[in-house]
Specification:
This protein is α/β, with parallel strands linked by helices and 635 residues long. It contains 24 helices and 16 strands. α5 packs across α6, α9 packs across α11 and α13 crosses α14. It is an enzyme of class 6 (ligase).
């Protein structure tokens, strides 16, 4: 056990150095605080290369350290995954007790404390498989056999019991819990130890010349949150905004720009309402054949790279880009723009490669591509008029990301309606040897639509799509009303009040989305998300403030030097509410590993909500602070 503890500390130290190096790499990559011609920039970029080399060495050392000190068994232990360790020991017990069967170890969290902390519910499946081999047994007898096949002593388990029809109840060791909580206090909350991967997350993706609307809200919030989660887990994440900045619509926009602002090349046109500008051009395109013809000619000239048309296109994109950035700044979302135009030359190349590989088939003048099983709808790679499609762009993009960016994991965050499209893209990429599942992971993170309180698709009273900027403005108004209702304006400075207003408004909008299963539709309601009870951002902020106030009210080292207090503390979890809170906190690793598998962040929201409610029970039952007759604080 001492060797394992030393190995764990070694891995932890390596992880800390990796995190520090990643921070330094990020700073040098961005040139923080430096002008383009700053004399230190070149030196820092060279330092960046050195740091990345050092990072690779450390990651290799961490993996080697894990292998040398017990292989996979200790790898799971090092991650502090209780469910993972239980799955391992019960899998071995099943194999030992019933060597001819292949039954997984099903581990769940117990629903009540009398049933232990965790349960192994594999007995019934074992009985069913035994029956197939003409062997009769009861679930309870199977459960007893499993317990008999377990190791005599398991350091993190206090006792194991059989209950009911073969449920194996596992009770955690309090000594183990006390040690784990002290480790967290001393070393901080750390992500489970995993191999770092190069991840590209494609999310948000608005269209140029159109305002961002409520339909972009979920992709932006979920995508950004997945990036934050993966960055915390130690992955190298590239956030891509695949904006719609190419296609036939730019022909009509450029033609309309030429008519409205003929001197646009020398005088910047005042296009503040790009949405209105788009609608004007669309009306002309639909009603004026001469204008439509000229619009198509503009597309051809743009795609051929004529400078005047490229300038017009850039001007239109810049106006949209500035509007998008205002929204991203408000939501604190960071993205790298890679629009469809980025893949234009790569689309031409992918068509050549797919033709050469024999993957394209002619169909009514089109060139199509089937997936591996030739089911569903094929991709249209080249239209009958010779033009490219979204399918072409997505095939070019997946190749660029896997083979130029060297990504190991691709994540696409879009509405659930695009699931079939992306499954076909992935299938075609596998068929053409672009995607290799032995090296790459790909996920489509789908989500349901946002509904209004009437249960219908969220729209304005006039039936229009809700603009995202107006939605955020309404959130700010509602949050300020709530702060004034709570009289926070009487105790906060104007600057503090504004910061609180934005934190509450944007935090509530984000959390309301993330706390719902992303696969389902959810009802957007400011009234519900601003409630201070239940699983809401307001309640979490309240709980966080309450927790922070304890150390502040204690004063002394508790408020100013908490590390000194931690170093001198011997933790004993005597009260049942203390022990309950500790056991909830110990589930953190398993929650993080679960989200790594399914990319569903509502599990994290449920976890932090349970932490808050369990802490509230603890706070109500155990004195954290009490004052003596003289009003002095006692702990």
């Amino acid at each position: 056990m001492a060797d394992f503890d030393n190995a764990t500390k070694s891995i932890s130290n390596i992880e800390k150095e990796i995190l520090q190096l990643k921070s330094e790499i990020s700073d040098t990559r961005q040139g923080i605080g430096l002008e383009v011609n700053h004399p230190e920039l070149k030196q820092l970029m060279e330092e960046n290369t050195r740091l990345r080399h050092r990072l690779r060495i450390l990651q290799t050392a961490m993996e080697k350290e894990t292998r040398l000190n017990g292989g996979e068994d200790n790898a799971v232990a090092a991650m502090n995954s209780i469910i993972g360790q239980l799955q391992e020991i019960f899998t071995k017990a099943i194999t030992k007790a019933y060597p001819g069967l292949t039954v997984p170890a099903v581990i769940t969290i117990s629903s009540a404390s009398k049933f232990g902390d965790y349960q192994c519910n594999s007995a019934m499946q074992i009985v069913q498989q035994l029956q197939q081999h003409s062997v009769k047994s009861s679930p309870r007898d199977v459960a007893l056999n499993l317990i008999a096949a377990l190791p005599g002593t398991i350091d993190f388990i206090d006792k194991i019991e059989v209950a009911g029809a073969g449920y194996v109840n596992v009770f955690l060791s309090k000594a183990y819990g006390e040690k784990r909580i002290m480790d967290i206090l001393k070393e901080g909350v750390a992500a489970p130890c995993q191999k770092s991967r190069r991840v590209i997350v494609d999310f948000s993706s608005p269209n140029v010349a159109k305002e961002m609307h409520v339909g972009h809200l979920r992709s932006t919030i979920i995508g950004d949150s997945i990036c934050r989660f993966l960055e915390f887990m130690g992955h190298d994440v590239l956030r891509i905004n695949h904006i719609g900045d190419w296609g036939t619509q730019f022909g009509m926009l450029i033609a309309h720009l030429q008519d409205r602002f003929p001197d646009f090349q020398s005088v910047s046109p005042p296009i503040s309402d790009l949405q209105g500008f788009y609608k004007e051009s669309k009306v002309r395109f639909d009603s004026d054949e001469a204008f439509k013809k000229r619009a198509y000619e503009c597309v051809v000239k743009l795609q051929s790279g004529e400078s005047n048309y490229l300038k017009a296109w850039n001007l239109i994109c810049d106006v949209s880009r500035k509007e998008f950035q205002i929204i991203y700044n408000r939501l604190d979302v960071k993205l790298i723009e890679r629009g469809e135009s980025f893949y234009q030359s790569r689309m031409e190349q992918i068509v050549i490669e797919l033709k050469k590989g024999g993957y394209l088939e002619e169909d009514d003048g089109r060139l199509i591509m089937w997936g591996e099983d030739r089911k569903g709808i094929p991709l249209t790679i080249v239209k009958s008029d010779g033009g490219f499609t979204y399918d072409t762009s997505d095939m070019a993009a997946i190749k660029q990301r896997l083979h130029e960016e060297n990504a190991e994991w691709l994540i696409y965050v879009t509405d659930a309606g695009q699931a079939t499209h992306f499954q076909t893209i992935f299938s075609c990429a596998r068929r053409s040897n672009i995607l290799d599942h032995s090296k790459h992971r790909v996920d489509h993170v789908g989500f349901g639509v946002v509904l209004g309180e009437d249960g219908k698709k969220f729209k304005t009273r006039s039936g229009d799509t809700v603009k995202l900027a107006k939605l955020l403005d309404e959130g700010l108004k509602r949050s300020m009303d709530k702060l004034i209702e709570k009289e926070r304006n009487l105790v906060l400075t104007p600057e503090e009040l504004q910061a609180a207003q934005e934190s509450v408004a944007y935090g509530c909008i984000k959390y309301a989305d993330l706390s719902h299963n992303r696969n389902n539709e959810y009802v957007f309601s400011f009234d519900k998300m601003l409630e201070d009870k239940g699983n809401t951002a307001v309640y979490l902020l309240y709980a966080y403030t309450r927790i922070r106030s304890i150390a502040r009210n204690c004063g002394g080292d508790y408020a100013n030097n908490i590390q000194k207090v931690i170093d001198s503390t011997v933790l004993q979890l005597k009260h049942e509410k203390e022990w309950k809170l500790a056991k909830v906190l110990l589930r953190f690793t398993d929650v993080m590993l679960l989200i790594t598998k399914n990319l569903s962040l509502h599990y994290l929201c449920e976890f932090v909500y349970e932490v808050c409610t369990t802490f509230s029970e603890f706070y109500d039952s155990c004195y954290c602070i009490k004052k003596n007759a003289k009003g002095k604080t006692n702990l």
